[in-house]
């Protein structure tokens, strides 16, 4: 059934799948009316979707190298776009982004611009050329273009560091969602999440991950959009929220002025016993902070995220799977299209959920109401009980002020359906969507690391004579080891979801951005230059992170370049060192120059063979 | 100049133009965020709208436009791929 005409049948297969999922949602809604408990619905949603992904993973099993590493290079443009979108939109995008906008307003939205603009760099500077190269992994390109095992190895180190930073956050998110939906402890939830992730990728590598990611995209986008449209229509805010929330944004500014945006002092927060990680609204929603420094902080954050996007191997490797160079280019456009559907919705969700809470004229509003009444509301007491929300009556007047309501950022998306009084089936759907988002990204990341280690370190450096069976065995064993390591670290709960995610971008841009683009765009770039650039870039970026991060050395940030933006230092050092060392060393031989010429035109054979 | 060099020169030109447009929507407009916010679009403050939707939509359109332009350049110099297996 999945052989032969599989690619032509794709629209039909995924159309049926989408229909089936919608039928499942309706069945759950009926079951809820019939008296099924919220807990059972949550379990069914997560279990049902995860089983489908595992089934797809099983059907996509393979024993061929090019199917395992690059899905046989037959993924059509639009489907690769969906898979990339799922690969890209992590647990952080799904669960934490609307929460970030909720608390950070305009300032936080630099992430939106940064996490989308990077695709312009991917399409114009990298994706088509890497596809023409025909590599299996990103270090495969570095190793072949610059030559030598050391360059390849340096690229593997940068890739592993960046991807691993990212993957712990994803496993953490799957753990959070699994533990909530299945009502199990977080530590156990992390391992359940990991097993689900491995079920999708173990047997079929890139091929299995591709087809599960398409399925996961469909689930996550449905789960994100339904609540937004429902709330917007139910509350009478507008039939099509994306175009019609202008008044609501203006109303938020009014309410902010009415309640006052008060930043609580650290001492007050501590004295009231607010649990760690919970925040109150203290920043304007749509107002632009004045001054050059604020603008620079916005721009520099966007810059780091964009350049980081174009350096993250789990994204770049998705474009190795398209049938042609032309398809790779188009596929980047489709990727961003599918990403934009969710990203342009996140600010709308933040606006709606903020307004639902803040507007005293709405029945859902809690600010300005007596605290005793607010505590009676079911969802409030639920979240307060698990320390995800908190009320601190600073002025002791018994009325809830804006600065007295604390909430964890992640809760915004997860609680909005309950806050707006939607049926529980929607909360179950949102949990399944969050799970899909975190799983798909984790799969892409674990596969990127395992492929780099199995192909570039094991096959290319350690044992070039290994046969196909042995290579794929090593690749699968590495998947388990890396996944387990990620889950172990995630279960120790070290850092919040977003801090870690931004670091992955900075690590990647520090070490990989310039070696990648100069490999295509500058013939004079030499092996020594690339190696020196990668080492100096990653080294200086990491050193600066340690220097500036409050939990490490905690020195004041230089020019506003804080720990979220350390890639600016790393990438600049990388560029300078790479150019200087390249110019000091002998220019690449004519074979390398010819290879670069070949990479620059779409026609003709790929540089590396179909199977290598 | 050989065919390949001409093709690359045009490709580079398109890349630079694409990145200039990218720079405008990704950075330039946000350098003037506060004054931009005095304008409005669909009832949203303009700077808020641009980072919530405007720039993102601009990036999507830009990449589709870029891909089509680059295909034309490849065809012009006869470097387009032939068949799916190339």
Protein architecture, described:
The complex is a heterodimer of chains A (612) and B (86). Chain A is mostly helical. Chain A has a single domain (6-252, 287-352, 422-599), classed as Up-down Bundle (Sodium/glucose cotransporter), CATH 1.20.1730. Chain A has helices spanning 6-33, 38-59, 65-70, 77-88, 91-108, 110-133, 138-146, 149-182, 186-201, 205-234, 241-244, 246-259, 266-272, 292-309, 313-316, 325-343, 346-358, 371-376, 378-385, 411-419, 424-462, 468-491, 497-511, 513-521, 527-548, 567-584, 590-599, and strands at residues 278-279, 389-391, 405-408. Chain A has a three-stranded antiparallel β-sheet with strand order 1-3-2. Chain A is globular and about 80 Å long. The mean pLDDT of chain A is 89. By secondary structure, chain B is mostly helical. Chain B has one domain. In chain B, 74% of the residues lie in helices and 5% in strands. Chain B is built from three helices and two strands, in the order ααββα. In chain B, strands 1-2 form a two-stranded antiparallel sheet. In chain B, strand 1 (40-41) and strand 2 (44-45) form a beta hairpin. In chain B, helix 1 (3-31) packs antiparallel against helix 3. Chain B is elongated, with a radius of gyration of 18 Å. The two termini of chain B are 26 Å apart. Chains A and B meet through helix 6, helix 11, helix 12, helix 14 and helix 16 of A and helix 1, helix 2, strand 2 and helix 3 of B.
């Amino acid at each position: 059934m999945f052989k032969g005409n599989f690619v032509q049948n794709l629209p039909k297969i995924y159309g049926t799948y989408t229909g089936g999922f919608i039928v499942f949602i309706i069945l759950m809604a009926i079951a809820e009316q019939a008296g099924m408990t919220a807990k059972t619905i949550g379990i069914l949603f997560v279990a049902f979707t995860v089983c489908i992904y595992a089934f797809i993973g099983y059907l996509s099993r393979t024993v061929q190298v090019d199917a395992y590493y690059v899905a046989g290079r037959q993924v059509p443009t639009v489907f690769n776009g969906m898979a990339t979108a799922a690969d890209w939109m992590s647990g952080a995008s799904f669960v934490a982004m609307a929460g970030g906008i909720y608390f950070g307003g305009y300032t936080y939205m630099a992430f939106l611009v940064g996490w989308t603009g990077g695709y312009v760099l991917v399409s114009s500077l990298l994706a088509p050329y890497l596809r023409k190269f025909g590599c299996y992994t990103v270090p495969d390109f570095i190793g072949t273009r610059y030559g030598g095992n050391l360059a390849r190895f340096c690229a593997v180190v940068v890739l592993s560091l960046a991807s691993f930073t990212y993957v712990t956050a994803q496993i953490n998110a799957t753990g959070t969602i699994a533990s909530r939906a299945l009502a199990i402890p977080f530590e156990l939830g992390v391992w359940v999440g990991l097993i689900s992730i491995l079920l999708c990728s173990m047997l079929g590598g890139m091929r299995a991950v591709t087809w599960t990611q398409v399925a996961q995209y469909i689930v996550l986008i449905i789960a994100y959009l339904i609540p937004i449209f429902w709330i917007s229509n139910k509350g009478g805010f507008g039939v099509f929220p994306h175009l019609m929330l202008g008044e609501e944004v203006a109303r938020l500014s009014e309410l902010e002025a009415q309640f006052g945006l008060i930043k609580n002092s650290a001492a007050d927060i501590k004295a009231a016993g607010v649990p760690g990680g919970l925040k109150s609204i203290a920043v304007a929603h749509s107002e632009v902070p004045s001054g050059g420094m604020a603008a620079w902080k916005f721009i520099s954050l966007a810059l780091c995220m964009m350049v980081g996007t174009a350096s993250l191997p789990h994204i770049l490797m998705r474009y190795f799977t398209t049938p042609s160079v032309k398809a790779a280019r188009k596929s980047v456009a489709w990727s961003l299209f599918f990403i934009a559907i969710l990203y342009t919705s996140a600010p709308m969700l933040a606006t709606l959920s903020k307004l639902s809470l803040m507007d005293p004229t709405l029945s859902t509003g809690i600010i300005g109401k007596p605290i005793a009444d607010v505590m009676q509301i079911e969802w409030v007491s639920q979240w307060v009980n698990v320390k995800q929300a908190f009320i601190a009556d600073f002025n002791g007047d018994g009325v809830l002020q804006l600065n007295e309501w604390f909430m964890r950022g992640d809760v915004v998306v997860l609680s909005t359906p309950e806050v707006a009084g939607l049926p529980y089936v929607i909360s179950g759907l949102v949990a399944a969507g969050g799970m899909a988002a975190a799983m798909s990204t984790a799969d892409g990341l674990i596969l990127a690391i395992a492929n780099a280690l199995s192909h570039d370190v094991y096959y290319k450096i350690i044992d070039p004579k290994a046969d196909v069976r042995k290579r794929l065995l090593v690749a699968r064993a590495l998947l388990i080891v890396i996944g387990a390591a990620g889950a172990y670290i995630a279960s120790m709960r070290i850092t919040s979801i977003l801090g870690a995610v931004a670091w992955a971008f900075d690590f990647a841009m520090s070490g990989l951005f310039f070696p990648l683009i100069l490999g295509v765009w500058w013939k004079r770039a030499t092996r020594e230059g690339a190696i020196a650039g990668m080492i100096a870039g990653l080294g200086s970026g990491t050193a600066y992170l340690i220097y500036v991060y409050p939990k490490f050395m905690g020195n004041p940030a230089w020019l506003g370049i804080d720990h979220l933006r350390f890639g600016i230092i790393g990438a600049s050092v990388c560029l300078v060192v790479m150019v200087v060392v390249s110019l000091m060393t002998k220019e690449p031989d004519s074979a390398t120059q010819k290879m670069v010429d070949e990479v620059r035109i779409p026609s003709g054979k790929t540089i590396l063979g179909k199977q290598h | 100049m050989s065919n390949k060099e001409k093709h690359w020169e045009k490709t580079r030109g398109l890349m630079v133009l694409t990145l200039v447009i990218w720079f405008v929507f990704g950075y330039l407009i946000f350098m003037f965020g506060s004054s931009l916010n005095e304008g409005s679009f669909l009832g949203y403050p303009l700077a808020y709208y641009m980072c919530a939707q405007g720039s993102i939509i601009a990036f999507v359109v830009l990449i589709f436009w870029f891909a089509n332009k680059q295909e034309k350049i490849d065809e012009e110099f006869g470097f387009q791929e032939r068949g799916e297996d190339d």
